[in-house]
Write a structure and sequence with these properties.
The protein has 7 helices and 15 strands. The chain is of the alpha/beta class. The protein has one domain: L-arginine/glycine Amidinotransferase, Chain A. The strands form 5 sheets. The protein has a 3-stranded mixed sheet, with no helix packed on it. A 3-stranded mixed sheet has the order 3-4-5.
């Protein structure tokens, strides 16, 4: 197992993550998109159980990392850029039954491999940043609009207040961008217990059988998810 994480995550987070995987790719770009999300893997990478789709203009080092570790990927059809419409096309979330995203923003390559799934229309194009799929019908979000849609579909959705989630250049980040799920373990870029909603989330996760790994004793950092590949 390998991991991909924002290179601007703290040294403590990256060092601790290395204890759980064989190798870590510290993701970074320059001049391709907004500075605040320039190191976010979930802006350039889509992942589901069977596929990894990577933006064509993702760093060469990422493709070399995947090839070196014999990790198969597909290239998406659109480059990531500096606007909302072209910085969100890989930032969707997929489960065995659903594809969650804002209509009109999804890269065509992702739509093509998800034709058998129900497309759940969300108001937030930065979907993966804002939504975590735990397992089955269990989700966590920091977006009230997403929570409303999922609850309306009969899905269990825990709301986590995004205040106090740190991100470069903005008042707060999103909960999805702080985390990565591996089986029944959830890894956080920082410590959820430093957050006002942290104890509630901790109890919720433990109640549904999740192991919680806080990679440092710092405030949560939205680094565009932690990808396990």
């Amino acid at each position: 197992m390998f991991a991909i994480i924002d290179s601007r995550s703290s040294a403590r987070v990256i060092t601790t993550l290395k204890e759980y995987v064989k190798d870590v790719f510290a993701f970074q770009t320059n001049g391709l998109t907004y500075d605040s999300i320039s190191g976010h893997p979930d802006i350039f990478i889509y992942q589901d159980k069977d596929h990894l789709v990577v933006a064509p203009n993702a760093p060469v080092g990422l493709f070399e990392f995947l090839e070196r570790h014999s990790i198969a990927c597909l290239k998406g059809k659109t480059d990531v850029g500096n606007e909302l419409y072209n910085s969100t096309q890989y930032n969707c979330l997929s489960t065995p039954d659903f594809l969650f995203h804002k209509p009109g923003y999804t890269d065509p390559a992702i739509l093509e491999i998800n034709t058998s799934k129900e497309f759940i229309r969300l108001p937030q194009a930065y979907t993966r940043c804002s939504l975590i799929h735990l397992y089955g019908n269990n989700y966590v979000t920091s977006d009230g609009g997403i929570e409303k849609v999922l609850s309306g579909k009969g899905l269990s959705c825990f709301y986590f207040n995004p205040k106090e989630i740190r991100i470069r250049g903005h008042n707060n980040g999103f909960i999805g961008g702080t985390a990565g799920v591996l089986g029944k373990s959830i890894f956080f870029n920082g410590n959820i217990e430093l957050h006002a909603d942290g104890q509630r989330l901790k109890e919720h996760l433990l109640n549904i059988g999740f192991e919680i790994v806080c990679l440092s004793n710092e405030y949560l950092y939205d680094g565009g998810c932690i990808f396990f590949v």
